[in-house]
Amino acid sequence: KYKTENEFDQFLARVGGSSNAYTDSERTVYHFTCPQDSLRAALDIFAQFFISPLLHEEAGTRELKSIEEEFALRQNDDHCRLLELWRHTSRRGTPFSRFTCGNLSTLGGGLKNNDVFKNLREFHDKYYVGSNMRLV
Questions:
Q1: Which of 61, 45, 62, 43 is nearest to 111 (CA)?
Q2: Which single residue of 26, 48, 50, 100 has CA 20 to 30 Å from 129?
Q3: What angle do CA 71, 129, 110 make, to 5 degrees?
Q4: Are 66 and 74 in contact (CB under 8 A)?
Q5: Residue (of 42, 63, 45) closest to 3 by Cα position
Q6: How far is it, in rounded angstroms, from Cα 26 to Cα 97?
Q7: What is the pLDDT of residues 27-53, one digit of tens each?
Q8: 31 in Cβ contact with 21 (< 8 Å)
Q9: Rounded distance between C-alpha atoms, residue 117 and residue 57, angstroms
């Protein structure tokens, strides 16, 4: 329905809104603000992220680079290092024991770009389903 990359961000900028997202150990949270009279249109565009995401390869490649940069920044952050130590020494097999920040190696190292995006599409189709989502 919306075929332009960043269409949601452009819409929010026009109406005076904003958006962001974060992932913690158990969930990914997407959030946005906008004026009330723009909410219906904003929700329509936002819903398409989950109904029919663009998942352009070029955008994915940029995002992988951004993830790698974020990973590199975390290497010298004492709080992040302590958290990783706690995770590494926690009981194996628990959600807490998983690593918290991926990088190029963990997200697609050794794979061809096509395989990374095939895996991304499969992940989306498996996990981005209504029963796993909440709208608040």
A1: 61
A2: 100
A3: 35
A4: no
A5: 45
A6: 12
A7: 899 999 999 999 999 999 999 999 999
A8: yes
A9: 7
Confidence band, pLDDT 50/70/90 cuts, at residue 25:
confident
**Helices 57-74 + 113-127 axis angle, to 10:** 90
CA 119 vs. chain centroid, Å, equals 14
Number of neighbours of residue 94 by Cβ within 10 angstroms? 9
The tokens describing 50, both together, are: 């989950």
3-state secondary structure of 103: coil
Residue 23: what residue type? T
Distance of CA 41 to the CA centre of its chain: 22
Q: In 1-136, which residue ranges form alpha helices assigned H by DSSP?
A: 7-15, 39-51, 57-74, 78-89, 104-108, 113-127
